[in-house]
Amino acid sequence: MHLRPVDRSARTLWRAGQVLSLRGAFRMRPVADTWRRSAVCGLIALGVPEVVLVATGHLPLAFYTCAGGLCALYGHGLPYAARARALGWVVFGMVAGVGVALTTAGLTDSAVVRVLVLALLAGVCKLVCDAARIGPPGNVIFTFIISAAGFLPVRLAEVPAHLELVLAGGVLAWVVCMAPALVRPHAPERLAVARALAATARLVRLPAGDPAVARARYDVAAASHTAWHTVRLIPGDTPRRIAESAGLSRLLVRAESLAAAAQSDPSAPDRPVLPTAAASFGEPDPLDRAAAADRLTEWAQVLRGGHRVPEVDFLIDEQDQIRGIAMQRDVAAAPSGVQRVLRAFRPSSPGFQLALRVAVGAAAAGLVSIALGVNRPYWAVMTAAVLIVANTALSWHRTVQRLVGNLIGVGLFTALVPLTAHPVALVVVALTCQLIVEATISRNYWVASVFITPMALVMVEFAGVQPAGHLALDRWLDTCVGAAVAVLICFAVPNKRAFDRVGLALRELDAVLARAREALRTGRADNDVRRRLKAALVEVRESADIAAGEWWSTELPEERIVASERAGHQMLAQLPVRLPVAAR
């Protein structure tokens, strides 16, 4: 990709100003539709062992059961069969990471050695979580638990017993997260499709020429790509599952028809019309956007409510799109999670440099904390590891959010100290904070940080009551150290591969478009072509957004990005969709 040179100094100053802007940093977003499920699972997986340990007088061991219990926060967007596998790997990773941290703590008293080992583990956690696409909360929980475990007072002989507690907590988390399958076995895939329908409804409601259309198109492509991927993960081993997959596929087909019509040129004589209920009788109404959007919204609400999947009769235009009777199961053709993780360890992989920045930043923050005489440098390690994210702008925003949230959170913890003298009160405070964190983390990180701080401090107190003033001061100092180091690392070592990633994404999109045109011309277009095109569109937009958040002075090819995205979305509107046999 050729990037046009510009006045470097002026461009650098302009980009730095954009990066340092706090616009939108404190804006509240809509709450995630999975927060109740993750909150309830987390409360049960954390609370049950804590209650048992309190009742038996072994609360100092609660840290280890909490380490396994926090695995319950993962995988809530996956169908249950895929969730079972993913959570198994999450529990394995938690046990392995805590095992390395505890072994290090048992072998050496050197704070420097511990910090270096924990920093390396933080980088590995970032690399593996990103490559495996495990989703929220990503590497955050792993880094927090592993960093804290590395500074626990533990003897080497105690490590196996402690790991058994971590494993027990993880097994309980697995059981708790899988239990809803007995009541609503299809909830995850229905929620994924509901998000795609809701995103399409927002696009359909936008008038032509609205500046928000470009972002809405990306949201639809991303949500639809995720929904199709989730539906493909539904096992096709029973008629009921095949019928479920077919019904959800029908809804996605209709959503894509509506998205295609909404994106068409209104001046074109052969532009697609907006399908509505009237279209079933042969006379589509091209102007009834509101009715179409309302129908999509209604279907999304039905899916979220757990009711029967709405039945959709295909329209004439959609019947022309549907060729064949079997939906391709291309999951096997795509790289598995294990393959993606192994490839991520190559120095040339996109995530390797970011993971290296995380490890270096975490090590630097921990060493600075030791030099300042702070008793718990693992908080600095954790802070730096969590704040070094995809680009400088995101890191800066998250840094400010974390500083504000932690400052308020430290004050909240100090105010709660008189209430936590009894072990039962400690457990109640920890669980309450966990519930509030799940309810607020998707809305804004700074609000969640207010409650993450006292929850983390209370978990430290499980091992034994410590002076609240020293505990709060150490937390605040380490947060400031970790935040300062993270920002310096991001500004001093910008992710220059982000711009290379844009070029690679554009070339891949061009290649996929060429294959799609050829497949359409020869009548061989299938779901694999659609999947690749959606993935390429999502990658172009994500890589462009990440590159735009770096401050150094290379200019993005904005015109080419916009043109390529427009061509990709137009091609999506023309490609057919293959459905399962039950969808006929």
Describe the structure.
Residues 365-489 form the Integral membrane bound transporter domain. It is a multi-pass membrane protein. InterPro entries: Memb_transporter_dom (IPR049453). This is Integral membrane bound transporter domain-containing protein. Belongs to the YccS/YhfK family. With 584 residues, this protein is an all-alpha fold. It folds into two domains: 31-181 and 346-492, no CATH class; 185-329, no CATH class. Helices cover 68% and strands 0% of the residues. The chain has 22 helices and no strands. The chain has helices at 8-20, 35-56, 62-69, 80-107, 111-132, 139-149, 159-178, 187-205, 213-232, 239-263, 289-304, 316-321, 337-344, 350-371, 378-387, 392-416, 423-440, 445-462, 468-492, 497-522, 527-548, 558-572. Helix 5 (111-132) crosses helix 13 (337-344), helix 5 packs parallel to helix 15 and helix 8 (187-205) runs antiparallel to helix 11. The longest helix has 28 residues, at 80-107. The radius of gyration is 25 Å and the shape is globular. Mean pLDDT is 80; it is low at 1-6, 265-287, 316-333 and 580-584.
